[in-house]
Amino acid sequence: MPAGYGSVCQNCYYENLFNKRVVTCLAGLNNKFYSDLFLEFSVWLKNDVGTHKAAITLNKSFPFFYFLNLNFPNKVPSYNELIVHHGEINMRINSFPISFLCETQRMRITHKEKDAAANRRTIEKMLASKTGIPALDKLIFDYYQHLMKKLANNKTTLRSIRLAMSPAIAFVEKVAASGKMEVEQIALNQYLAKKPGQYSALIGFVLFCNGRGLKVEMPNKATLSQVNNRAEFERLLIQHIKKGDDLLTNIKFRIVALAYFHGVSPHLSKSIVKQGTVFKSSDGISIDINGVIYLIPNLLNTMQLRGKDKLKIEEI
Q1: What are the b/e assignments for 142-164, b being 16+ CB within 10 Å?
Q2: C-beta of residue 137 within 8 angstroms of C-beta of residue 130
Q3: Where are the beta strands (DSSP E) in the chain?
Q4: Residue-wise pLDDT tens digits, 245-259
Q5: Quick one: CA dihedral 136, 137, 143, 149, positive or negative?
């Protein structure tokens, strides 16, 4: 006999342990419907995974049947009812009882219900992340409750809630990272300039914030383009400065600097640089084209490097 099993073999030990645990669990169910159901499940589990594993895992499945015994007397609830009352995380832990109920045709799980469960799980994970700033965390939670009220009135879906929550949380996290205590218009403009694809997804959240007295509104897309272009020009300037490029000798450097400081398009900046006459001055350089003079300051004195070494720079 293996050590530790007394006078019985290993198979008999787990057989006895399994039977004892079945009896113990049945004593905790005061409803005959679920007592019979749990007994049937025990036999199914033993045949499915073997006596050894069944003896070890049986106790882990008992809380699931105990929950059904208390909340759904004399009937097996639908999958959707379980998700609402029991929670998706617990449902995943109790995969054996769910498989048993499905195989014995006591429960049917549709593709729609699976999608809804997955969306609920994702939303729960989103809400679990915190910014560390109570006002911003409360704003997100209030927005979630606002969306759930719309769901209760059949005005939205769980998938739409997930798609709405994701950019809202990402934006609020950026606000928190900047040290702000509430959402602001400048922060919104900067965020959308970097992520213009989230423009439509953030409209609902911005309207919600507006209704809460926060003075933010969706910026004009043309304005976002200008903000984004200026940020890109700044990254290019930093790259040229790090390389030690000179405004007098490097045409691309002059094109970027002119676009950045004078707000002209890259196409017009190229035309001015190529057709104009360049003059050096103590403060930087001047570009003269048809009597119009564009001044570009000495960038080594005016620009400051701000830890952007890892940013990807794209040449114009």
Answers
A1: ebbebbeeeeeeeebebebbbeb
A2: yes
A3: 277-281, 284-289, 292-297
A4: 878 788 888 888 888
A5: negative
